[in-house]
Every structure is written in C-alpha cells, then in structure tokens.
Design a protein that fits this description.
The chain is mainly alpha-helical and about 50 residues long. Helix content is about 35%, strand content about 0%.
C-alpha cells in the first residue's frame, strides 16, 4: 500500500475506485465470458441428481 500512496498521494477505498460516476469504474469486459459455456455431458448431469 505504501508504494501506491507514495506514487498517487492517497489511499482510496475500492468502492470509490470502481464507482463509474465517482471513480474509474470496472475494466471494460470484466465479467463477460470469452465463449458461451458448453452443455454438460450426460455423465456430469448424472452427478447432480
């Protein structure tokens, strides 16, 4: 944390940093899947019963 404070001047709460109106917001594409999930195999589905 000291490196951040020395470089940028202050510690900032995470909630403020990721707030799109007050801070930087979340990185673009965060939480998006690169490809859709594959359907479960019959073997895997039988384990969930």
């Amino acid at each position: 944390m000291a490196k951040f404070t020395n470089r940028y001047g202050a510690e900032v709460p995470l909630e403020l940093v990721i707030d799109p109106d007050k801070g930087l917001g979340l990185p673009e594409g965060l939480g998006q899947l690169a490809e859709p999930p594959r359907p479960m195999a019959l073997r895997d589905r039988s384990c969930w019963r």
